[in-house]
Amino acid sequence: MFFLLCYAGVNLSCFLLDLLDAPSWRPRWKYHHWSLSLVGALLCVVIMFLISWSFTVISLALASLIYYYVSLKGKAGDWGDGFKSAYFQLALRSLRSLGANQVHPKNWYPIPLILCRPWGKLPENVPCHPKLADFANCMKKKGRGMSIFVSTIDGDYHELAEDAKTACHQLEAYIEYKQCEGVAEIIVAPSMSEGFRSIVQTMGLGNLKPNIVVVRYPEIWRRENLTEIPSTFVSIINDCIIANKAVVIVKGLDEWPNEFQRQYGTIDLYWIVRDGGLMLLLSQLLLTKATFESCKIQVFCIAEEDTDAAELKTDVKKFLYDLRMHAEVIVVTMKSWESHVENSSSSAQPDDSQEAYTSARRRISAYLSEMKETTEREGRPQMVDGKQAVVNEEKVDKFLYTMFKLNSTILRHSRMAAVVLVSLPPPPLNHPAYFYMEYMDMLVENVPRMLIVRGYRRDVVTFFT
Asked: What DSSP character marks residue 431?
């Protein structure tokens, strides 16, 4: 009986230690393993004395003799951790029970895949942007969830395998320092595009695969003349669309608030396309954090001038009510491209975005002229990012104009918003990657903090029925 009680006491102590071994408790409890085990054993001894002191003395004597014999004759060995083995088996069983079928929206949790590699250069020994973990914590549902931090190293795997291990250890230390639940992965590939393509296809197991890709917006590409960024940026977005991953592009990451910087004002959603409710879900997740809990949600619906604004507002309010979400609905009318073409001769009203729009049109026109000259000089078909294509200049003008009007609307209504969420337009076919970066720059012009969101082919919120 004594040995059974001691065994139960020691194991109970170790179990309590494992429960308390969370990241926030680890500094306090990491040196108390033996003390907790000893307390459990002493409690068992006290219980034995209360039952029968004579039997307890005999049991202690026998236990001492056995311990002395084993210490003299026994061989040292590493038997591992029984609890870790049990946890491993439990994790495998849980993973098999999840299967690979689609998760019901009620049980859906964001599992962000965070691309840590910056578009420029970070200081030495800094594996990730300091604000990325803060943003990852904002995406957790009820404080639960896992983040996957990944980065790529350009080069040959056989030559850079050790460098990748070192970088992975640095990234793991960063995640632990930021107290973010997540894992780190480093991929060696010939280029960033190829590395990300491998990641988005293979990362995860079953239903524990990442479902949202988080990327920092490359604000420095024009300033530092990084000409390879546009094609890489477009490639990442297209890969996410093909792999059916949601995308969140963070603009203004340097200004993203941490947990101690409380925000006031509004969280403004410019809801343009159906995205399965991801944008609405992200806004609700932001409200659950202390940083944004004082904010209110505004949903802006973009409509053309001939749309019935009152009917649209009623429909959106009913939709939000069915989702049990509280938000103010505002319908904003925007002049269509056709109306703009018809009235192009009339003088345009002064606008904060007008100068940026004019400059973007001038740069795109110069790029198109250079493409045509190259085609005529070399006597070959027009090429777009290495592929033969025909660029429709009218569609280019239409896409840029749409981004210009949307940016003007955002600046007019959401200049003081805590954060703006807007739908991500997919890269148009046969448009050079350089043009797409011009469109995106036009969209984010003068907006300090923005999340550009693209959902995927499934709902992530449930309706009230």
From this structure: -
Of 99 and 38, the one with more pLDDT? 99
Range of weakest confidence among 21-35, 373-387, 402-416 = 21-35
State the residue for tokens 């040292």. 76
Give the span between the Cα atoms of 399 and 366, in whole angstroms.
17
Structure tokens at 193: 């595009």
Per-residue pLDDT, 220 = 82
d(CA 399, CA 363): 15
- Say how far apart CA 193 and CA 433 lie, in whole Å: 14
Average pLDDT rounded to a whole number, residues 101-106: 70
Both structure tokens of 391 = 């660029």
Which is it for the CA torsion 302, 307, 310, 315, positive or negative? negative
d(CA 394, CA 383): 18
pLDDT in tens, 435-459: 999 999 999 999 999 999 998 766 6
Q: What share of the chain is helix, strand, coil (3-state, %, to 5)?
A: 50, 15, 35
DSSP state of 340: H
Q: Which of the given ranges, 37-46, 67-76, 215-224, has the highest pLDDT on average?
A: 215-224
The full length of the chain comes to 465
Question: CB atoms < 10 A from the CB of 179, how many?
Answer: 11
CB-CB contact of 409 with 300 (8 Å): yes
H/E run at residue 250: strand 246-251
Tell me the domains of the chain and their CATH numbers: 1-66+83-100 (no CATH), 112-334+404-454 (3.40.50.12370)
Cα separation, 111 vs 136, in Å, equals 9
